[in-house]
């Protein structure tokens, strides 16, 4: 039976294994980024300028409070690409259906919006909110995408001569889930609160509130955030720090450094990502293989000689010329010309003979084919490096040779 000490060690090992597994699972989970995005493409403000808006609330005129609310909203809105419109209802005595457009649907601009708002000078007349909502429905006909309808009123007697709920229902039927309605109350009329809650319910995706609850800059920012923006989760499936929607190289292996497009870095611009590149720092004008290493072209020269001879036979001159032409086309190349012998003769005589053979090919390249002597080196190895058995005539013939390997990097 295991001792207490051994059992504790076993428990500790098990705990470490479980912890490691949990950490690996946690690391494997894809990242997600929460991004704040615009959820509406158009907004319209319908402002009440009827006679009840001339009344005082909390020491100020209701119309002044309504205009202040809209103005603060306008000033707090960030610079966003959105269309806007504005309309008022009321302010015309003895006219039951008074409503007028203050700003037609157009790209939003702070100053233009503020100028339109300041044309509302006085409050008066009846409260034909339904007429204003119906007219707003027409104002938005040209709108594309989502819409936010903000109605600012004291909601007092608005249902006395019209039915704003029915008008809101008609607007909702026409635009469906493209439109959300946001009633805002200036005042504290209990019946009016019930009415604006009904209209908010008709809108389904909006909400009702009171202007006095949006008194501070922070409150206004929160109101704008709820009306105009939403948070969306953007996944990063390969955990490279670039969201999937922007990732041009999905599935990048873990731990690989990427650029802003989510693609692995290729520092030497050779077309092979750094994490796969076995030859970093390759010049930009050099062709590379799949490992990022320079592609090399190799020319092999092999000239054989008769026994004890070192003169170059005519049949090898074309092969030597091919090597010379290649060197001329690739001026960065140098070559070592190696001379060899079979095993006939002494080591000393074979060393000299092999040097003579290498020098013969070297001189031919210089004098006959114009290769610079500075690019050529000759060396004799005697019989030390046979390529075949010296026990046969054929083998000896192969060993009486000059060899050279010319390697050049292939350019693009």
Gist of the model:
The chain has ten helices and 14 strands. It has helices spanning 4-28, 62-76, 110-117, 129-139, 164-175, 190-203, 217-228, 317-329, 347-368, 393-399, and strands spanning 31-38, 42-48, 56-57, 60-61, 83-89, 99-107, 147-153, 179-185, 209-210, 229-236, 296-304, 335-339, 376-380, 401-409.
The class by helix and strand makeup works out as: alpha/beta
Query: Structurally, how many domains make up the residues?
Result: 2
Q: Report how far the terminal alpha carbons are from each other.
A: 73 Å
- Give the spatial strand order of the biggest sheet: 6-5-2-7-8-9
Beta strand %: 15-25%
Helix count equals 10
Shape: rod-shaped
Provide the helix percentage. Answer: 25-40%
Number of strands: 14
SSE run? HEEEEHEEHHEHEHEHEEHEHEHE
**CATH architectural group of the largest domain:** 3-Layer(aba) Sandwich
Overall radius of gyration: 44 Å
Q: How would you sum up the major sheet?
A: 6 strands, mixed
Q: What is the CATH class of the largest domain?
A: Alpha Beta
Unreliable spans: 21-27
CATH superfamily of the largest domain: von Willebrand factor, type A domain
Mean pLDDT: 90
Could you walk me through the main structural features you see in this protein, from its secondary elements to its overall organization?
The strands form four sheets. This protein has a six-stranded mixed sheet with strand order 6-5-2-7-8-9. It has ten helices and 14 strands. It is an alpha/beta fold and 412 residues long. The chain has two domains: 38-232, 3-Layer(aba) Sandwich (Rossmann fold), CATH 3.40.50; 296-409, 60s Ribosomal Protein L30, Chain: A (2-Layer Sandwich), CATH 3.30.1330. Helix 2 packs antiparallel against helix 3 (110-117), helix 4 runs parallel beside helix 5 and helix 5 (164-175) runs parallel beside helix 6.
């Amino acid at each position: 039976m295991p001792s207490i000490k051994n059992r504790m060690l076993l428990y500790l090992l098990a705990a470490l294994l479980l912890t490691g597994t949990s950490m690996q699972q946690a690391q494997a989970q894809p990242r997600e980024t929460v991004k704040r995005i615009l959820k509406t493409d158009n907004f319209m403000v319908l402002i009440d300028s009827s006679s009840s808006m001339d009344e005082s609330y909390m020491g100020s005129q209701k119309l002044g409070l309504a205009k202040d609310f809209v103005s603060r909203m306008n000033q707090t809105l960030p610079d966003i690409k959105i269309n806007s419109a504005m309309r008022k209802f009321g302010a015309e005595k003895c006219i039951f259906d008074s409503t007028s457009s203050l700003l037609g649907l157009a790209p939003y601009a702070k100053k233009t919006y503020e100028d339109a708002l300041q044309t509302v000078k006085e409050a008066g007349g009846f409260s034909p909110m339904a007429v204003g909502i119906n007219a707003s429905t027409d104002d938005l006909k040209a709108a594309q995408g989502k819409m936010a309808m903000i109605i600012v009123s004291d909601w007092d007697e608005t249902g006395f001569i019209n039915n704003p709920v029915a008008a809101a229902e008609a607007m909702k039927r026409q635009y469906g889930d493209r439109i959300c309605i946001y009633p805002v109350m200036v005042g504290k009329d209990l019946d009016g609160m019930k009415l604006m809650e009904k209209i908010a319910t008709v809108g389904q995706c909006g909400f009702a509130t009171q202007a006095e609850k949006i008194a501070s800059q922070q409150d206004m920012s929160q109101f704008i955030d709820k009306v105009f923006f939403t948070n969306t989760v953007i996944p990063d499936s390969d955990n490279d720090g670039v969201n999937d929607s922007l990732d041009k190289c999905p599935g990048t292996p873990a731990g690989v450094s990427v650029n802003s497009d989510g693609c692995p870095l290729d520092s030497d611009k050779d077309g092979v990502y750094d994490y796969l590149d076995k030859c970093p720092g390759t010049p930009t004008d050099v062709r590379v293989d799949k490992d990022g290493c320079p592609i090399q072209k190799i020319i092999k020269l092999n000239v054989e000689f008769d026994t004890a001879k070192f003169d170059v036979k005519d049949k090898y001159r074309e092969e030597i010329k091919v090597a010379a032409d290649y060197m001329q086309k690739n001026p960065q190349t140098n070559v070592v010309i190696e001379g060899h012998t079979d095993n006939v003769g002494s080591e000393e005589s074979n060393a000299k003979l092999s040097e003579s053979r290498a020098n013969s090919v070297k001189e031919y390249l210089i004098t006959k084919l114009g290769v610079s002597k500075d690019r050529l080196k000759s060396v004799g190895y005697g019989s030390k490096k046979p390529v075949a058995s010296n026990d046969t005539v054929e083998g000896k013939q192969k060993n009486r040779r000059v060899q050279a390997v010319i390697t050049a990097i292939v350019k693009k």
